[in-house]
Amino acid sequence: MKTNDLILQTVTKIIIFLILAFSLHLFFAGHYTPGGGFIGGLMTAAALVLLLLAFDAKTVNKIFPIDFIQVAAIGLLIAVLTGIGSFFFDVPFLTQTFGYFDLPILGKTGLATAVLFDIGVYLVVIGVTMTIIQTIGEDE
Amino acid sequence: MKMKENLEVIFAAIVVIGAIINLISAIGVIRLPDVYTRNHAASKGATLGILLILSSVFLFFWVEEGYMNARLLLGIIFVFMTAPVAGHLISRAAYNSGIPLWEKSGQDALKATKQKVKNK
User: Fold this and answer.
1) CA angle, residues A31, A36, A37, in degrees to nearest 5
2) Shortest Cα distance from B77 to chain A (angstroms)?
3) Using CA atoms, how far apart are residues B33 and B41, in angstroms rounded to an integer?
4) Chain B residues lying within 8 Å of A8, measured CB to CB
5) CA distance B12 to A34
6) What is the pLDDT of residues A41-70, one digit of tens each?
7) Does A53 touch chain B (CB under 8 A)?
8) I want to staple A78 with a disulfide (CB 3.0 to 4.6 A). Which of A120, A122, B10, B70 is the partner?
9) Contact between A7 and B77 using a beta-carbon 8 Å cutoff
10) Euclidean distance between CA atoms A98 and A54, whole angstroms
């Protein structure tokens, strides 16, 4: 039976930006407030799952033509490379550092290399979650 | 200083009103006869109660600590947009799987339309 999902689809189109923006906020706020790579990645995956619920898998694949297994692999690679990067400065594996910089718009901002590791976590969480859900979802 | 305390009383009153509305909606879920009327009580009442509580929390932290929490505003918008849609989807799923209306309900306008679509 073909049903008319107009209300769900319209609300999804609006709410998805809210969820994605909030997941990015959680990701970048993770250093000083609750949040971080894991919960940010889960929330981004939740936004994509909402898209999958409102539209079918074919449409979502057209919007996001991404192989999520590769996303997980790239995330792991980034996490390992940020650990290895500390070898170039004669410090132990996974040592992190931070500094304060004057950015053009944001002003004085604390930038930590832990964010790079967090990007890896974020990508792995998105990749693994979406791979699980897409593998279970497509039974054709 | 006096002003701040007056505002605090008002915010506390808003929280209590929101909690009472939530309680009424919970009683409605228990008391009402079928899925559709229960859904009507749950989605409307709970949405309004939560909106009142969240707005009061937002205003309280704004007045008390001078801290505008954007996440609460986002939460208000989010609940306001999604809770009615969730109610709609639950109701429609119930109707499509053939849950009957309460026997005393007056009319079923959707039934006639569905019949017309089926006959085409």
Assistant:
1) 130
2) 9
3) 11
4) 85, 89
5) 27
6) 999 999 999 999 888 888 888 888 889 999
7) no
8) A120
9) no
10) 42
Which 3 state secondary structure label does DSSP give A112? Answer: strand
Residues of A in contact with B78 (CB under 8 A): 15, 18
What pLDDT, on the 0 to 100 scale, is given for residue B86? 93
A14: chain B residues, CB-CB within 8 Å: 81
**Residue A2: pLDDT over 60:** no
User: How far is the C-alpha of A81 from the C-alpha of A34, rounded, in Å?
Assistant: 25
- Local structure of B7: helix, strand or coil: helix
Burial class of A48 by CB neighbour count within 10 A (0 to 12, 13 to 18, 19+): buried
- With an 8 Å Cβ cutoff, is B71 touching chain A? yes
CB B15 within 8 A of CB B55: no
Unique residue bearing structure tokens 């937002």: B58
ipTM: 0.78
Q: For residues A128 and A72, is the Cβ–Cβ distance under 8 A?
A: yes
Domain locations in chain A? 5-138
pLDDT, mean of residues A11-29: 92
Chain B CB contacts of A29 below 8 Å: none
